Amino acid sequence: MSEPKQPVVRPYLTTRSLMPENQETPIQFIQSDIVKHKLFYRRNHFSYPALSYSNYWLPIDGLVTSPALLSMNDLLRLPSKTLKVVLECSGDKRSLFEPKVFGEQWEKGAISQGIWKGVPLSALLEHTGIKEGAKEVVVEGYDYGERTDLDQVYTFSRSLPIEKALHPDTMIAYEYNHRPIPFKHGYPLRLIVPQWYAMASVKWIKRISIIGSHFSGPFQSIDYVYYPSKENDNNAFPVTTINVNSTIQKPLDMDILNTGKHSIKGIAWTGKGTVTKVEVSTDNGRTWAKANMDYSDDMSYEWVSWSYEWTILEKGEYTVLSKATDSTGQTQPALPFWNRKGYGYHAIDQIKVKAE
């Protein structure tokens, strides 16, 4: 008799909240550098918006010489760009902060990566023209809801400095992994801002406006701001560029292993330059060794997969660490930069395993 077939076991999202929906990518089980949309993490502030592709128009107004109202067909006819980009929620790893901070208690899975296709935002702004005095580009989403701290209804809106908006790789995307962007990830149009935390990559774009002042919406002036002090807002500054970071995917935290050979695997990424080195320690930081990195031709906006071969000679408990360095000289610190809202965690990654 033939052996019975084993059921196919597939990873699934980890739920952090249902209303609004916030779910983590099972990053420890992702073996590809492209995350399928069903496993792409979901970060929402409000309920999903109601949208119809058939009557979708994108207005561009404000300090422009020729305001525009573009249809999807207009956008699809424009020259496109395709980029592989990692998107990381600025609250990724928030649950690891000590002392604890309030907010969605993300573990290590508020990060995903895939292939985005769209129109450079600069091409749209060149089409409309930018008037003198323009400072920022505001992108408004269709998602909205009440903020209980302000007792008022807001749409999710964010701005970019003109220089960042005009970067050739800042794009209005309409495809993810060669398919229309899935609804839960911003269909039909999503802003993609490589190298910045993903709050900048506004979903379900409703409007683009050029302004001559600094935008002060609550998702820019209250949220997504680093507050280093528990007691007050002194020395606050905005969340923007992704910090250099790494995550150990294998083995899993608290795994029980046999003595002998094992492969430690993970990913590393940064918002400045590229990752140039990943180091691994199997003795809680007393000694470090370089990991092997899997490079492609252009890793500007991608994570790097890395691996390290480890031979366990003795039984016991081990603390395994990973530490990434990028081309600007940034290295993951031993301790995170604590801030009141829990953004930008990028301390040396750590797991514990036991050998029996």
What keywords describe this structure?
356 residues; mainly beta; Sulfite Oxidase, Chain A, domain 2; Immunoglobulin-like; 2 domains; five-stranded mixed β-sheet; five-stranded antiparallel β-sheet; 23 strands; 39% strand
Can you offer a commentary on this structure?
The structure is a single chain. The protein is mainly β. The chain folds into 2 domains: 14-238, Oxidoreductase, molybdopterin-binding domain (Sulfite Oxidase, Chain A, domain 2, Alpha-Beta Complex); 245-355, Immunoglobulin-like (Sandwich). 6% of the residues lie in helices and 39% in strands. It contains 4 helices and 23 strands. It has helices at 72-77, 121-128, 162-165, 218-221, and strands at residues 14-18, 21-24, 57-62, 68-71, 81-88, 111-120, 136-147, 152-161, 171-176, 179-180, 190-192, 205-211, 225-226, 237-238, 245-250, 255-257, 260-269, 275-281, 289-290, 292-294, 304-312, 316-326, 349-355. The strands form 6 sheets. It has a 5-stranded mixed beta sheet with strand order 4-3-12-7-8. Strands 5, 6, 9, 10 and 11 form a 5-stranded antiparallel beta sheet that branches. A 5-stranded mixed beta sheet has the order 16-23-22-18-19, with no helix packed on it. The longest helix is centred in the middle third of the chain and has 8 residues, at 121-128. It is globular. The two termini are 36 Å apart.
